[in-house]
Design goal:
Length: 323
């Protein structure tokens, strides 16, 4: 039986990311017992105090084990916690690190990746988190390879999941790894969650990182966003900014975490997504409206960024056009 420690952080955290793994793993245990097998998960809520209040005191969680009492565990699950709460959860860091060295697996859910990265265990490794927190994460942990399009990252016993309720997909992955495919399929059906979902790209909204102090780059970003229909070259943007192309590209990447070409593509595809979600124009009309004239290039770039073709994206998000 695997000893599972679901951390109950101090400060703000997402209650569902504590309850979700607890319920899913208990459902796995129930199914195993009903099919004549031993339960797999010995589940504990592990905290620093005997009560944590959430959402202004509307809810409270009472851990059934204190961190200092847990000398050995097999799997640590870090729920989504507000990155601003890292300072009040520092005590978890050496404990997580020590447990990992002793053979425990560690899984972060959504923005729990901030606490995981604070341990140093993902330095130089791949990690994912909620796409809305990507810019803040990159700024805090530049030595981590952030892969925001993935829902699940599995790196030698260190796991991370994409945003919000996509954490359930990582929990199903852990259940399958330790209990078998049939158990994970059963739990996915009980929870009514698609078990094979791999990408959070269709949910990502590109907003452009502007929390930087490089004014010429910020002006270039604003120009791109105000001229979506135009074919804008990197040379033009560099000249407009009175910066050499090489220096412009370097500063742009440093400020926005995207190359100028990537930024141009993402702004155009974001505009196309909005039209597909709410408009009635055909796909070619949308393509021209965002500055593409080559349908193959448009469709290839759209799928690369969203994980879906323009037609599939419309079917998924435009109720009026589907009906």
């Amino acid at each position: 039986m695997k000893h599972v420690s679901i951390i109950v952080p101090q400060g703000d955290s997402i209650l569902s990311s504590i309850i979700g793994p607890f319920k899913a793993m208990n459902a796995a245990n129930d199914y195993l017992q009903k099919t004549g097998r031993a339960p797999m998960f010995d589940i504990h809520l592990v905290g620093l105090s005997d009560e944590t209040k959430l959402y202004g005191g509307l809810f409270s969680v009472h851990p059934n084990a204190m961190m200092r009492e847990v000398k050995k565990t097999d799997l640590i699950i870090i729920p989504a916690l507000n990155p601003k709460s890292l300072s009040v959860n520092q005590e978890f860091i050496p404990w997580i690190t020590e447990q990992y060295k002793r053979g425990a697996e560690v899984a972060s859910l959504c923005v729990g990746a901030f606490l995981l990265a604070s341990t140093g265990l993902v330095k130089g490794k791949a990690c994912t988190t909620h796409w809305m927190a990507a810019d803040a994460f990159r700024q805090m942990f530049p030595d981590v390879k952030l892969v925001t399009e993935k829902i699940i990252i599995d790196e030698n016993g260190i796991y991370s999941s994409g945003g919000a309720y996509s954490f359930v997909n990582l929990v199903l992955h852990l259940i399958e790894k330790h209990s078998g495919r049939d158990v994970a399929v059963f739990v996915s059906k009980v929870l009514e969650v698609e078990i094979e979902r791999k990408s959070q790209s269709p949910f990502t909204i590109f907003m452009g990182q502007k929390e930087h102090e490089d004014d010429p780059i910020k002006k270039a970003q604003e120009y791109i966003e105000s001229n979506v229909a135009e074919k804008i070259s990197v040379d033009y943007l560099a000249g407009m900014s009175l910066i050499s192309r090489r220096n412009f590209e370097r500063r742009f990447k440093k400020a926005t975490s995207n190359t100028p070409v990537e930024y141009l593509q993402r702004v155009k595809i974001e505009a196309a997504k909005k039209s597909l979600e709410s408009g009635r124009e055909n796909i070619n009309e949308i393509m021209y409206a965002v500055g593409y004239s080559d349908s193959k290039a448009f469709r290839t770039t759209f799928k690369k960024i969203t994980g879906l073709s323009p037609l599939d994206y419309r079917k998924k998000y435009n109720r009026e056009m589907v009906s």
